[in-house]
What does this fold into?
Amino acid sequence: MKETRIPFLILLAILTISPVVTFAQMPVTVMRIKYGGGGDWYGNRTTFVNLFKFIRQHTNIRTAEKEITHSPLDPDFFKYPIAYIAGHGNIKFTDAEIARLRTYLANGGFLWADDDYGMDKYFRREMKRVFPDARWVELPFDHPIYHIVFNFPNGLPKIHKHAGGPPHGYGLFYEGRMVAFYSFNTDISDGCEDPQIHGDPEEIRLQALKMGTNIIAYALMY
It folds into this structure.
């Protein structure tokens, strides 16, 4: 897969509120991963419509109107540098899909995994198949993903209660690069949905949209 990261100085200009630089490449989008196992990979249908609109309003990153969907074996899977996976239940990949995911991530792709509550043990099991020797590392609060556009001095915001307790942001690293970010026990995706779906207060939705913006910006930069 060809490297599609944005050079550092260009990204700094893109992220400014003032329209100094126009992002001339294809609009940024996210590839939602369709998976087997019975989990609801198709949930959070309004998440990226709202998140991309927010990104366009608060940065100079050109985004698509919504995400696209592919399974790991689809011919176009390698065209998109940012992938997303979420759900409430079982996640299962075939051996061929595992191999494709490893190739994708090892060659510049980035995965954002957002636990909707219930996918954790299945997601961790499948990622262990992708990178058997890699371990999830909880990111410190000074990690760039918490500060790249909006400042989150205490790490991930807490959007939904789920199992209770604080949220956790985990990184999976391959050859020194974070290839996957896992937002756990918070549900950023739900917070980005249309307000009437979950009834979240506006401040909670704003925190989710800001954190989602940080994740997309980080994926483009690193």
Notes: DSSP finds seven helices and seven strands in the chain. The chain has a mean pLDDT of 89. The first helix runs from residue 8 to 15.
